Amino acid sequence: MKARRLLMLAVCAAGAWGLSAEVAVGAFPQTSREVVLDYLQNGVTVIFDAAGEDAIRSVRPLCDCMTPVVQGSRLVVQVDTSAFDRDVDKQLDVTFADGSHQRLTVQFRVPQLLRVSSRTLVWKQGTAPRPQVLRITLPKGSPIRELRRAELVGDAFDYEPAVVRAGREYTVTITPKSTDKPVLNRLQVVTDCDDFRARRVIFLQVKR
């Protein structure tokens, strides 16, 4: 009797939250996929299989990079990954024949062509202009063969690069010339790879 009451409470709670107490006719048993990309990979196909035949009514991708095709109870998604330069999640909303909905997620794991210890260095306005050290490295297996230089865009900071391993690892010591007022400059890392995913921009900011 107690178990029955608990079941009724669960059903009522589902209704109160606007959730269906029944499983969707064409529900996907697995609503997420993890995809590990290769270096500089430009595309991938991801497949989701629904539980029921011809159950999918419509699909709405939440990113222009995704092109879904419905094949009966199978959803085939072509994904343009050429703009992915870090780990990212992409989603699709699916509507089934019975009017129910599900959101599907693809978790992309993107290997880093190069690593920087921080993408933003911040100093607070009015504090001592202490130096901060940025580390730039090429991970093993990266198609980048050489770190060439780091270029400062702006004139509000001093920077001093130092070689740890020639072409493979550098440190850059960055110091604001003044913290009297807010300012934003950037440091650009230049490599031997022309692909935009090999670029890194580190923002240098004196923040109010």
Report on this model:
The chain is mostly beta strands and 208 residues long. The protein folds into 2 domains: 24-109, Sandwich (Immunoglobulin-like); 115-207, Immunoglobulin-like, CATH 2.60.40. It is 7% helix and 50% strand. The chain has one helix spanning 2-16; strands spanning 32-36, 43-49, 56-61, 66-71, 74-80, 88-96, 101-109, 115-116, 120-124, 132-137, 147-153, 157-165, 169-176, 183-191, 200-207. The strands form 4 sheets. It has a 4-stranded mixed β-sheet with strand order 1-7-6-3, with no helix packed on it. The longest helix has 15 residues, at 2-16.
Fraction in beta strands: over 45%
Instruction: Name the CATH homologous superfamily of the largest domain.
Output: Immunoglobulins
Run of helices and strands: HEEEEEEEEEEEEEEE
Largest sheet: 4 strands, mixed
SS summary, helix count: 1
> What's the rounded overall pLDDT mean?
87
CATH topology of the largest domain: Immunoglobulin-like
**Segments where pLDDT lies below 50 for 5+ residues?**
1-24
Distance between the termini: 63 Å
Q: What structural class do helix, strand and pairing data support?
A: mainly beta
How many domains, as an integer? Answer: 2
Please give the share of residues in helix.
under 10%
What is the spatial order of strands in the main beta sheet? Answer: 1-7-6-3
Oligomer: single chain
Number of strands: 15
Known CATH architecture of the largest domain? Sandwich
